[in-house]
Amino acid sequence: MSTEVWWSSLAAADRDLLGLLDGGERARVESLDRSADRGRSMVGAALLRVAVGAHLGTAPADVVVDRTCAECGGPHGAPRIAGTGTAAPSVSVSHSGLLAVVALVPRGPVGVDVQRLADLADPADGPAWATREALFKAGTPARGDVAIAELRPPLPGYAAVLVTPAGPAGTPRITHWPRPIRA
């Protein structure tokens, strides 16, 4: 099974990215009060579309992202890729501080989390925090049903964890978008 992990940073934030997003995503970005939150939301949504577009061989703006909440039907649920006509990958998105990350697998549960350590009461809790968040994003599967791996974030001061279906997944393919992130 081929796992892909895509990294980006707030350095990629540019209002031109809004052209990749659908109306709901643009409204969410614009509704956020803090510019850093708007930037993270915009970069995360654009990075998801770029990663899935590359995976499916389609333009990022043509990727259909469904964020319908399973509990209330609102537009704030975990992202799912819809309407591709082919097998859509399972996806997960996270952002914290300066970083955004997207993980995708061809099928099965996937969860990814990145956490800026300075935002935690106890920075030593970073890997455990990221593991809990990644498991939650993967649908809280039984630990025997998934593989849990720490990721190496492209900047110091962060913890990141990837949850994928159990089995011989191999090393994820790492992509930096739009270019490698430098500390």
The best one-word shape is globular
Instruction: Look at the helices and sheets and give the structural class.
Output: alpha+beta
Annotated CATH topology = Ribosomal Protein L22, Chain A
Radius of gyration: 15 Å
In percent, how helical is the residue content?
Answer: 10-25%
Number of strands: 9
Low-pLDDT runs of 5+ residues are: none
Largest sheet: 4 strands, mixed
CATH superfamily: 4'-phosphopantetheinyl transferase domain
Average residue pLDDT: 92
How would you describe what is shown here?
The N and C termini lie far apart (31 Å). The longest helix is centred in the first third of the chain and has 22 residues. By secondary structure, the protein is an alpha+beta fold. The chain has three helices and nine strands, in the order E-H-H-E-E-E-E-E-H-E-E-E.
Topology:
Blueprint: E1 4-9, H1 23-31, H2 35-56, E2 64-66, E3 80-82, E4 90-96, E5 99-105, E6 111-116, H3 126-137, E7 146-151, E8 158-165, E9 173-176
Parallel strand pairs: 1-9
Antiparallel strand pairs: 1-5, 2-3, 4-5, 6-8, 7-8
Helix pairs in contact: 1-2
